[in-house]
Every structure is written in C-alpha cells, then in structure tokens.
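=== RUN LOG ===
request id: a7f3
mode: sequence -> structure
chains: 1
length: 386
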Amino acid sequence: MFEPRPEDRFTFGLWTVGNVGRDPFGEPVRGTLTPAQIVQLLAAEGAWGVNLHDNDLVPITATLAERDQIVREFKQVLVDTGMVVPMATTNLFSDPAFRDGAFTANDPAIRAYALQKTMRAMDLGVELGAQVYVFWGGREGVDTDVAKNPVESLKRYREAINFLTHYATDQGYNLRFALEPKPNEPRGDIYLSTVGAMLAFIQTLDKPEMVGVNPEMAHEHMSGLNFLHAVAQAWDAGKLFHIDLNDQAGGRYDQDFRFGAHNPKAAFFLVQFLESVGYTGSRHFDAHAYRTADMEDVRAFARGCMRTYLILKEKARQFTQDAEIQSLLSEIHADDGTMAQFQGTYSPDKASALKAAQFDRVALGQRGQPYERLDQLVIELLLGVR
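=== RESULT ===
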C-alpha cells in the first residue's frame, strides 16, 4: 500500500535527487550521479517523470556536438525506463554572468545573453517533450535598493517574458509558462515575491493566457504565508500550471525538506485540495535529502516524498467518509435559504431589499462555530486514531 506508480504523476528534478549535499558552510558529501543514473533511480522508485534545468543535463561549456550526443543518450534512457520530461527550465542563477540577475540585470548584454540561453533551453525542453516551462528568477532582485529601479526592473522582466512567449508561438511550441515566486535567497529581495504578485504581473503581459504560476510550498512558507491559500488563488484564476512540493519551517532559509517532513497538517490540506478540485498536472517534488544522507538514504527520501503524498491522499478520502467530521461540516455550513434573496449577482432591487432587512446583531455575535472540535478530529485522523 502507498507504493507510487507512474499514474500518480510524481516527478522530481534532476537537481533534487542529484543534489550532492553541498551547502554554504560545507563541501559535497555525496558523489555525483549522472542524469541517466538519476532517471533510473527514480524509475525504480515508481516516479512518472523527471524535470530539468538546461545545465542539469547539458554542461554550460558543451559544444553543439557534445550537446546533441548527451541529448540522444538521455532520450534513450527515457525510452528504456518509460520516464517522461513534463517540465523544463533554464538555469539563470548559477553562472557568475548572472550575479546581478538575468532578465533584470543592469547590463544589457547580460539581458540579451539570458534571452539567448533561455531560447536554446526552451528548444531542449520541447525536444524532450516538455509542455510546461518554469521561470524562477532566483537572481532577479537586489541586495540594496540603490542598485536598481524596481519599476524599470519590472519593465525588463515583462519585456523578457513577452519576447519568449512570442518566440514559443513563432516556433509552434505547445508550451505554457509557469512563473515561480520566492521572497528572498539568494538575493536579499527577489522581485515578484509571492503568488499574488505573480498573478498581477501576468495580467500585464502580451500573452497572459500562456502564462501561469508554479507555486512552491517552501517559498510561501518562508514568508510565513499559507501555501494552500496561494494554490487556491492560482487555481481560482485558472493559473495553476505546475506546483513544487516540499516542506519548510517558516522564517528560515530555503530548506527544501522532504514533502510533509515539517508540517504534515499543512501538507494534508494541500493534498486534499489538489485531489478535490481534480488537479491533473505533475506532483513535482522540488526537495533535497538531508546533507547527512548517503545514497541509500537519498532513495528513502525520494520514496518518502511520494509515499507521504499517497498517505495524505488516503487521509483525505477518510476525511470525506468520517461521519462525525461530515456532521460537523454540515452544521457549520447549514443554510436555511432565507439569505438567498441577498446573495449572488447585484441588482438594484436586491440592494434595496438588503438595506431594508432587519438583522439581530447581538444574536449574530453570540453564534459560535465548533472549529476546535473539527480541528481536533483532523489531528486525530492524521495521527491514526480515527
């Protein structure tokens, strides 16, 4: 039970399982896995697909001939394992050229190079079968506000995304763009730091219908925000094009913990939401094993991400069938229909009737809700005693 299968649509990035355990204070603790080895490891654990930055697969120094050979061999591994590449992205943050950003860099040559690199990476992603293209602007920000004008930076960002949507259309690519927000790290402040900010930005683009968001659990929790609310807002706007699952303690550096490792309650409500609305995209794990892990523990990390999702999916099913929980929900959402005349679309008659209505304010203020009881039942469900 709870064994992942390809139909669960679980994916990992090459950079996740392939993480060598380096951090700002320590050198690598694990050996490097080749892209082929990562695909084989994930396939053996029941994953559906693997996602990648361009340079996760093709070194930034590779010649065109080397690039083509690497891609041919990688495509053969995908065929051999049955794995797919549903999403791709560009590394615009590791190379020193992007120390001041990519699309928002002050140097126009860097901005032009970033566009060139992204177009080539898009070509690679499409060649491998990707239909979602993610943009994480890890260096698109500042460490001091004296460095950049934020309005000018947003204009540059907009110009870049517009350019690339037109390029995708001109090439006939069946791609949807997903913008990934993050509040900070590695820059002191990153532009378009939350899902809400990204959704507003998208409406200013030339082709907003092509562009959605890729919310990441850790990135919203870093700011102390509620990830479920961010995902729900994106879903309501029709913009949940992709999602990154992991875990995170609030107010800390980007920890990228195994999914559900820190806050299983938040993970439960997220899984419940995705399953209840019928989200059909990838369940992508953008997480890393602990630095203490050896390769066998890295396998346990990958299995754990997927198993936790499946366990919480089963808990969500139990939630819908628990008689006491459903009885409380019915009590909470009870509606005798008397307020229907005031609900829905505005009309002058409805506004007049509402202004004339009599409400017992004191009685309304005395009406409690059994949220403590309900929340405790959720806790007991998650702890396995119901």
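=== NOTES ===
Residues 324-382 form one domain.
Residues 295-321 form the longest helix (27 residues).
=== END ===
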